[in-house]
Specification:
heterodimer; A: mainly alpha; two-stranded antiparallel ribbon; 15 helices; 2 strands; globular; B: alpha/beta; Rossmann fold; 3 domains; six-stranded mixed sheet; 18 helices
Chain lengths: ~400, ~525
Amino acid sequence: MTGTHHYRDLILRNLRQSGIFIAFVAIVLLFTQLTDGTLLSPGNLTNIVLQYSYILVLAIGMVIVIIGGHIDLSVGSVAAFAGAVSGILVIKEGMPWWVGVLAAIGVGIAAGAWQGFWVAFVGIPAFITTLAGMLLFRGATWYVLGSISLSPFPKQYQEIGNGFANGWLGGDGYDLFTVLIFAFAVVGYAVGTWRSRQARIAYNQSVESIILFILKIVVVGVVVMAFAWQLAQDRGLPYVLIILGVLIMAYTIITTRTVFGRHVYAIGGNLTAATLSGVKVKWVNFGILLNMGFLAGVAGVLYSARTNSAQPGAGNLFELDAIAASFIGGAAVTGGVGRVTGAMVGGLIMAVLSNGMSLMGLGLPEQQMVKGLVLLLAVAFDVYNKRRAGTK
Amino acid sequence: MSTILQMQGITKEFPGVKALEDVTLTVEEGEIHAICGENGAGKSTLMKVLSGVYPYGTYDGDIVFEGEVARFHSINESERAGIVIIHQELALVPHLTVAENIFLGNERRGRTGLINWNRANHEATDLMNQVGLHENPLTPVSQLGVGKQQLIEIAKALSKEVKLLILDEPTAALNDVDSAHLLDLLRSLKKRGITSIMISHKLNEIESVADTTTVIRDGKTIEQLDMSEADVDQDRMIRGMVGRDLEHRYPAHEPHIGEEVFRVKDWTVYHPTQQDRVIIEDASFFIRAGEVVGLAGLMGAGRTELAMSLFGRSYGRAHSGTILKDGKELHLRTVSDAISAGIAYVTEDRKKYGLNLIDNVRRNISAAALFKLTRNGWVNGNEELKVAEEYRQSMNIKTPTVMQTVNNLSGGNQQKVVLSKWIYTDADVVILDEPTRGIDVGAKYEIFTIVNRLAAEGKAVLVISSELPELLGTCDRIYALAFGRITGVVDVADATQEGLMKLMTQERSAANGGAEEMEQAQS
């Protein structure tokens, strides 16, 4: 292989990984321009976080499902059912708010276990199992709610979806706590990447040049701190962002550093090779769907808290947004490829598209059409890439 | 008789491998022409060139069919000319009916453009009669046995007005009765003037049905035998198939053989879906520490099936028999049972069963023994990197870094990754299934150096191969497998290619017959 070939390969492969970030930046710039800067205003940024947090939570689970070579169509219904059970217990039965939270998450886990059983141990394709689950849990939601909305939740419960960590450390015209938390995160990121770079050097692995490395950290730091500054000027740090941040970090580690994560990539990449390597495929598949159920439960809590109600129609089409986020974020249709961070950026692309178009006064019809085309293009890019790799 | 097909100077290259070199094949009109040769000799490649699977322009040389130079760009074009190939893996759609399968891609349309099913079913019945298949044309193909499915393939070929019928291992999956029926059918097609080319490992079948045999070895035509001549028999064919110059260089191997490590007794396995089909029958063998044992068998003999069924029942159904390691009986129900019992199986098809091609070298090496790198479910990435780096050096895996995607490596280096993965499991019993398939000569040498190293470390090694020189050059003892049964074992010092090939082509009936003859001779 000649040097030029090698470089072209490297660029092409990186394009696949970083293309999504470039696309994201381009979309943000485009809509900032089109909305005269409203997109990046403190109030609007906070709104985007609040409005799309549950999609992002679902996308974390969905990308793992997709890496494993499956699909889950039921997450919207499961989230609705979880929220409904929580609403019954807290609003109707008057139980404390935290009972509702735990019950909703428990419902999610139970639904995940149910679907995991059929997929892993009976061998029903996830598409069918979760299509059935979509109907089943939607029906269950209507059944327990008697097809009417329940409202309102107690204050503490609402806070999960709408509350802010604000004023804890003071600050003049901005929230110091928010800024400090983000500064802490940026420093953590810098130290973390530095240490993994050192480890790679210690193991004689290739690393990017020090200039590129520093540039990367500076860019990330500036972007994150700018985001923090905008949040701090508005209402402070949303609780949902804390929850989301913890989940993203936890699942990034789970997918990259644990045996379970490894096995998910292995069965998605080559099922027979994984089986012949001793991977307990059934249990991994069960775990994938169980986990998806758990996150659907969390999303159910966030959504019911944000809307301050348990609605029969909650979570409608959430699954499609989560699936789209995963694919836009670089997950492969055939499984074995994908990243939690990619899915998050994919989800944010969808969020900025919707939000930006709303700000421009475009309605749901236009938003829906644009989102559809973006999804198609993202997957076409993936298929095109694969074909190139295949013909090499 | 005139020549219907003349393939002249056919050369076909794949990246890094010359599959065919200046091959000549002459087939007379109306004859049954057999092609025989070892696995990988190039028989199937030659037939793919002929049928347009490898289009005109991707090979060198000329194909003259019925007096005209043929330039087939696709399988459709060769079929239009009257050449139909029936592959070893039958290409029938199981849920469609017999008639639908016969006319698939060639549907009988009426004037309206819609399919005329009455006509199709009627013609199907007619074609089925011609091949001696008496079934309802509306029966789904999945309800019929393999023998009958083979006949449907031939009926399908007849519907395309075939002039030259190519059959790739047509009787490999058939029992004796079905095989005999198929051979009779070939003879009756011959009477109707249809020319056939038959690729087969079953030399007695070739002997009984073929008019002419072309022997191919290492991608070259060795000779063309006229089967009517008196001195042409199975031994003569075997000599042609294996008689290569034995200047093979294999790394020197000094056996230090210790105690028995692994023993299999009366191992019987059934086909996973076909109820009564026995794939492995009463197989018994053993391997000692430091010993390299060969398992010689032709394609379809059940080599892989035997190995995979032992490896945590990865193949087949209704397993019976015993597996002993160090004298203790093992019950291996899953692959992880087998791995923790210290057994490793390196697959023959590394791309399909051995590697996650889209992942990197490092994670492929650790895939089967991730438990060695984990504590409480956490993978120690740095340690993993170190291990992968060690194997990259000790196994001489040629890759810029262990983060390279495995798909980008050459066949030989991919094979080293698979070997690393299994060696890292610390197995005591290592089963290598066709470890040198599709890799170049230099890498083969390296692979066998690694095999020797494993033996020197006191591991019990089983090498499955159909390349006899390879087994003779590297093993201490060789078992022969034919049609699911172990037909003999020879010390490498006493082994010859001819002797092994005889054992490898020994059929059940022949084996019984042989035994009876011996008894008679003794009495």
